[in-house]
Task: structure prediction
Amino acid sequence: MAAITASIRQHQQLRHDRILADVSELRGVLDDAVRSTARAARFISEAARGEHIGDERDRRFDEAQHDLLTNALRMRIRLGDGAPYQACKQVAQAFANFSSNVVSDGVRDRQTMEFDAASETLAEAAKAVAGSHTSMSRTN
Result:
């Protein structure tokens, strides 16, 4: 009887450890998506002030766009085509729209607002997912 009880406890502990590892990995994906969005927002702010021009702007844009798209794909693999992935995709598209409209004397306000709105949607989706998975780990 003691062996059966020990086996059950071990199984429960392993299950709990897997859930915690899953939540940790998910949070990493969400954190990376939010972090790349913050970097893109910083680029937008710097570009709006005219801090980057020519090749430097193009290089920084390519890096930021690559990060945004990579994180969107990671989100899709991890969570499917739901709200978090759609939000990541919107952020990447808004960033691409912004970059294509950067001109020497500044940027178009509409693209900046589009990026900000998409970023906020991503943050809310990430909070919702993180909260639902955190509460799941507490109940199991």
